[in-house]
Amino acid sequence: MKRRQFFKPAKRLVSFEEYLQEILILARRIVEISPGKQRFTSAQFELALVSFGDLKALKTEMDPDINVQFPKLECDWLAGFDWLDLAVSYHDADAIDYFQKKLGHPTFHEAYNQYKTYIRPDCALRHHEQSAPGCRT
């Protein structure tokens, strides 16, 4: 009788720079989901989380088979909203959910208002404001 292997292979240890390189490649890749229909991968949402410095949310979205050595992340609102807007424009359900939940946080809400007013008035995020709980945008 053969024994099954119960041990998972070790997680691949990746530097932050390697992780960013891999995720940027994935973020630019277009996936065909059916004939004539395309979408980007969910890597745009991961890049948004990196840009926002939201390590807790990022770890829930990352590939579970890698272990990244993260430096202290700092928030870059512009990059974060640009990547989040791209992810939302491709109907990434996790990105939409994240956006709607974060709108309840005053700092995020204020940064978003400035983004949509001064940077990108035509952003896809606007289509998901009203369904956010407690949103007064």
Could you walk me through the main structural features you see in this protein, from its secondary elements to its overall organization?
It is built from 6 helices and 4 strands, in the order βαββααβααα. The chain has 137 residues and is an alpha+beta fold. The strands form 2 sheets. Strands 1-4 form a two-stranded parallel ribbon. The longest helix is centred in the C-terminal third of the chain and has 14 residues.
Strand order of the largest sheet: 1-4
Proportion of residues in β-strands? 5-15%
- The tally of structural domains comes to 1
Report the principal-axis shape. globular
- Number of E-state strands: 4
Portion in helices? 40-55%
Low-pLDDT stretches are none
**Helix count from the secondary structure assignment:** 6
Evaluate the radius of gyration: 17 Å
Characterize the largest beta sheet: strand count, sense, and whether it forms a barrel: 2 strands, parallel
Structural class: alpha+beta
The residue-averaged pLDDT reads: 87
- Could you give the distance between the termini? 64 Å
- Spell out the helices and strands N to C: EHEEHHEHHH
